[in-house]
Amino acid sequence: MITITRGGSPILYLDSGTSSANALTLSAGSVWIPAQQFVPTTSSAANTFVALSITGGNVTFNGNVNTAASLIVLGPNVVMTVNLKFGNSGKPPSGITLQSPATMTFIFDNTGAHLQNAGIANLGVFGSSIGFTFANPNASWDADLGKVVFVGAISLSTLKIINGQREFLQFSSALASIGINNGAWVPDVQSTNPSTVTEASSPGSLALYLKTGLQATLSDSMLSSGLINCGPCTLVAGITELLITGLNLKLPKCIVNLPQSSSVVMRGGSAFQYTSLPNGTDSWTAYSSMTASLNQPRNVRGEGSTLAGIGALVITKVGGLAITTAEVDITADSTVPPASGSYFQSYALKNLFLKGDAPSSLAIQGTLQNSTLISGNYRLFSNLRYVLPFLPDPYVTNIQYGQAIDNSIIGDLVFTGAWEVNAPMTIDVTLPNGTLNRLQALTPATSSATTQAALPTSPSEENSLLGHLNADEIVQPVISLGPTMLDISSNNSQFGVSISAFNPDLPQQPQPTVAHLYMRTAANQLRAFALPQVQWEPVTTPDPVPPVTAVFQFTDSGPATQIGTNSVTLIPVASHEIVSGLAQAYATELTSRIFARFTMPFGIISTASLIKSTIPFFNSPTFGMIQPSFKAINYFGADQVSLGAPQPRFHPIGKSTGPTPSLPGISVLSQFPDSATATAYNEEFGPSKTTAKIPASRVDISGYGLSIFTDWRDDTISSGISQVDLQAIVGRTEREVIVQKMELLYSGAPATRTVVIQRLNSGEMRRQVFLKATGPGTFNFNDAAIKPKTHQGLVQQVINIRNMREVADIPYTTTDSTVNPARVTTFYPIQYDCDVVIQPTPSSPAIQVPAINHRGYLAAPLATNGKMMLSDFVSFLGQLPNKNLMLGGPIDCTVKAGNLTVKLTSITVDSTLNATTNASEIVIAPLGIPEFAGHGEWSMVQKVGPLAPMHLDNTSVPVIRQNTDAATGSPVKPLRFANPADLLSAVPGVDYCIMHNADTVRTLFPRPKVEDDGLNQISSVLSPVIADPYAMGNCSGIFPDLTACIPLQLLGGTELSNVTLPVDPSGFMSLLNPQATDPANPGQFPSPIAAVNRVLRGGDFPTLTAMNTGAITLLINSVDPDAAKAFNFASKAVKLLSFDGKNQIDPTNAVDQGLNKLLEVAGDALSQAKSDLKPLIDETNMVLGEIMQPVKKVLAFLATLGPLPKLDVHMDADFTVHVSLTFNLETYLESMLPPVAAVIAEFVTQFDFNINHTQQLLTHNTKFGVKPIFKIPTPFAPAIAVATATFDAAFENGVPSIAFGLGAGIGVDFGIGPFSATGYVLITQTIMDGGGSFGIGTDILVKASVNLFDLIKADVVVETSVKLLAVTCHPELKPGDSGFPETPTIWGIAQIQTTLIDLQTELQRQRDEITFLRTVIATRTPSKLKPSLLDPEKFNGQAYKYDTWLPSIKAKLQVDGMAIGDATT
């Protein structure tokens, strides 16, 4: 294509041309000239082009132009001359002859284009012929034709119509001829840009501008119009058409009849147009005022539709055909009231109310016969403003309506009527886009949190649930509820229909249509709707365990039922139609899916997503109507749809059946009496599960309620919900059973928790929970990684688990976001009874121990893999707040570890940290009490860090053992007495130790263990230590700090390690030193006494540190060699003061031989004590005589000290005689003469004496006791020696019980002015016999006292007493008698008494007492008291009566002092 421009604007387009010097040669083709080149001031001509079809020509330029270019640019002064040639090819319409100009010359200069000249032309029309000539004609724009015309000269001034017959009308003239104003050449005009694909079609047409006089008559009395006066008009003839048009048509009344008494009436006229085509097709168009009256559609008042306005009638007949068609288009006149008289019209379909404006336009077309359209259709247009869906039967709805509704225009409402010959008219309605967008659902006044909790967050999310799901996508549990109508009659089975809320995220939503006067919309925009399928009735729980209540009341019955699809099949918005339509779409469409949300018994909300399988041999879920029918009597049951799970065609290999088929979807337990079941159910079937399913094979949904009979099971589940049994009939639940598989901690036993809700005969719904272990606890958890990290120790397994029950404690929850953020494990507390199997040892077989009230926790892991992890177990243990909530419970059995017997009392569970892996592991730790035999006293103590050993927190200690390393095959690990947290620690936080107490020496055996090697021995990697009397005197606990003790050493002084305590079959233990080399004592240690003496002889023994009295600190320095000598001296003095004669000595008795040496100097003991005592003997061994001898000796010794007080004798009313004498040091000194009392006070620091005798008719009981403590001065002042000789005797009906003790110690005693202080440590050995028992013991007494002016006193007393009693169960038997026990029962009695009277506390107490006494005296009412004792006789100065008079006068003054009064006041 060649474009020629001037000043940047195109002035000529050529489809081709041959270039030469300043010229172009044109061949046949097309030429386009912008119309404004001819009429530059006519705006209507803009963007239009004169298009000419030529046979040849040329273009010349009066200046130099590059004609070879496709774009030729002309300068402002270049004149272009265009010479064109035209042909007369083509056949014009019938009755027309046409000769167009053969040539034309156009001149293009800087003012535009001009037609310089054209060849002659001729037009033959209506039988007349008219010639045309063009000599430099003027161009003008014909607005009626919309074309450029070139007016020329014509050969005639009138047109005579000789033959005016056309296809369906006859043209004629009112006079002999019609005047002609002028003639013109009219080229074709196109509005599209020139291109080679839009070739021009003709060389132009010839036009005649006629004056008034043309008439037309429609054939066959068409429209009953008669003669039509056309007025002035324009006739245009060309090879493509004949056109007659005018603006002053005079049209008489015309009527177009439609069926059902409908019609269109036309009056007057304005414009007309007649067109005849070469193919014989003629058409007549007339514009006039029209009024249409339609019988249909009728409004809600039963009125038809009317419309008045300006319209167009178009009659067309195709040449050669007998059919005449007519079209009527009417547009209402908006300036006048509607023909109906109302600006709004309301209509009602079968399910939709419509409100719109009065009709705005009407379009009719059909086959015209005479004046009637015998067939055809019409379209009536209106503006739709409001719609309201409804159901034909009684219904309820949530659709909002009223004054607040937006009534602006929604779009075009179109009524379409259609009819055929001899057939009734049909009416259809077309609704505009967005018809339902304005429908709004009312906001509920209240809403259930459980029902609304899972609503989608956006419309797009809701849309994704229905029409755009992939096969592996999971449908959400609930969706939002749009405008809804629920039928409440029985005609439609109480089903309803819900319309999806408008989704702005989907602008191309399918729009509703109308068919058979039913509004229809795409199925994916509708949902079948019904009330909740099951009534959630109150549930009672007998004897509930909190937080479960006795009666659980559901807040509601859950959300409404909804069934939807992704199908776009059009379904009527009606109850029955939506239900049947969903079933039909799913049955016939391969890609159709079903979405159903419904409730199930007791809090279950399920959402099914039925997607057809595309895999061969895999069945699809089923969905269909199951409405029962009785066609013989024309009776049909209620609408009901059934959802079925896909049934497998093949069972898994090796299994008779697989898991019960399940409906695909999700199921949520939104409300339930206990959270344990709800949590587990939601984990198994809720949205978080990767494989979604509903625990039901089939459910039947109806408007009256759900019917379900399913017993869903999945035995492949190891942890979680494994069975759901649901039975409901038409919305009424009969039974619900949910079985949850769990793991029982600590043993990993599989267990089930079954919740049963069942309707009783009374109609009440009762809930029960059943817990049952389904296997033994072998520590084989679902997570196989737990067992290797669980150190079972002595516990082999837990079997016969029974009587499991819930307890009212809170559950615990663990979360491990590092492994899986969605993984949560809940631990529910329970109690149970069981049998615990204790591991066999080389010394004892496996033991099965019955146990009751064990505490356990059922682990319910909520994780994708359904397993409780080791980290969950450890985290859970760390949450338990106290020991009462720990795993395990009491047991009662004994286990032989070596020859050591351990009495197990309970089982505990804790965790320990593996420092290598930095991960925690589980420890099963039975608590036990070791039972020791042998000489002395044995016990278990604990040592925490550097602190001194102390008493146990509990009476039992943990017995633990590390697992054998399976990878290395290491031998069985030893049993240890240690806390579980210290199992894998090289340095335990708490060391449990075996302590042996023998006389004044205690031995500590730390960190004991029992190897599983059959050697029957206790071993340790640490050296035993010995606490001598000095270390014991320095400690306030049961054992000194280890730094103050003597480590057990070899003779060379090397500390020992890996020492053992062999246990013989009788249970006796002795230290075994595998490093010992003494041939005389292989494997033995040196004597502990020898080791102590060796240290003492070297003077290297611990310091007895400060004894704090609160204000004064007394220090006994046992490191001082003089103090050591004082201790030896005190030991000898005890032996001297304990005996007073040489009789009762058996010279053949080895013990008495030593005693005889002491008695030789006993006679002079008292006198020597009053002087400077010197060491009497070098013998340091302590010996004891016969146990029954000291009674007489102690009484004789007391006699040497002075007279005893008088006995107190009185008689009770029941003939019981009491004789008693009790006194202490103070009362004893008061009974002596002052010189003697002073001597006694110097050497006796404590003296307690009592005698009590009770005599009845048949029985008698005598008790006697004496406990003196002597201070013996030494040459090493202020150090003193301390000695004691205690004696207690009792005779009950002649059966004696005797206890005798001797003790020695060291201390200090000094005074400075009015201040005096005493402090000492005293160790006493005691022997007891009588009443069928024999025993030995040791007492340690630490005492300190200070005195200032006898006004301020402070005392500290610490006394430790340890006794071992050997009790013979049958004291009447003697050795050798039948039944005499071979081994007595050993009982250990440990007692520590500590008394601290603080100085300030004592002073405050005295102040309080004085204040109280003053108050009593001040408030007491004066009264004359009466003496209660007889007046003693006056002392006459006789010395021998003084001893009796003094006590009596003291008693008189003490008892009757207030009654006697003070004579001096």
Compose a concise summary of this entry.
The protein is built from 15 helices and 89 strands. It has a 27-stranded antiparallel beta sheet that branches.
List the helices and strands and how they pair.
Layout (H helix, E strand, L loop, with lengths): L1 E5 L2 E6 L3 E3 L2 E4 L2 E6 L14 E6 L1 E6 L9 E4 L5 E6 L10 E4 L3 E7 L2 E14 L2 E8 L3 E4 L4 E8 L3 E2 L9 E5 L4 E9 L1 E3 L14 E6 L3 E5 L8 E3 L3 E5 L4 E5 L7 E5 L3 E6 L4 E5 L5 E13 L10 E13 L6 E9 L11 E5 L3 E6 L3 E9 L2 E18 L5 E3 L13 E9 L6 E5 L18 H4 L6 H8 L17 E4 L8 E4 L13 E3 L2 E5 L3 E5 L8 E2 L10 E2 L8 E5 L4 E3 L2 H14 L4 E8 L3 E8 L10 E4 L3 E2 L4 E2 L3 E5 L20 E5 L5 H11 L12 E5 L5 E6 L6 E10 L2 E14 L3 E11 L5 E9 L16 E2 L3 E12 L5 E4 L8 E15 L8 E16 L7 H10 L9 E9 L2 E15 L4 E13 L5 E8 L12 E4 L14 E3 L12 E9 L2 E6 L2 E2 L6 E4 L4 E3 ...
Parallel strand pairs: 1-8, 43-59, 60-67
Antiparallel strand pairs: 1-2, 2-5, 3-4, 4-7, 5-6, 6-19, 7-9, 9-11, 10-12, 11-12, 12-13, 13-15, 14-15, 15-18, 16-18, 17-21, 18-20, 20-23, 21-22, 23-24, 24-27, 25-26, 26-28, 27-28, 28-29, 29-30, 30-33, 31-32, 32-34, 33-34, 34-36, 35-38, 36-37, 38-39, 39-42, 40-41, 41-46, 42-45, 43-44, 45-47, ...
Structure description:
There is one protein chain. This protein has 1465 residues and is mainly beta. Helices cover 11% and strands 43% of the residues. It has 15 helices and 89 strands. The strands form twelve sheets. The chain has a 27-stranded antiparallel beta sheet that branches. Strands 43, 44, 55, 56, 57, 58, 59, 61, 62, 63 and 64 form an eleven-stranded mixed beta sheet that branches. The protein has a ten-stranded antiparallel beta sheet with strand order 80-81-82-83-84-85-86-87-88-89. A hairpin with a 5-residue loop joins strand 83 (1260-1273) and strand 84. It is elongated and about 195 Å long.
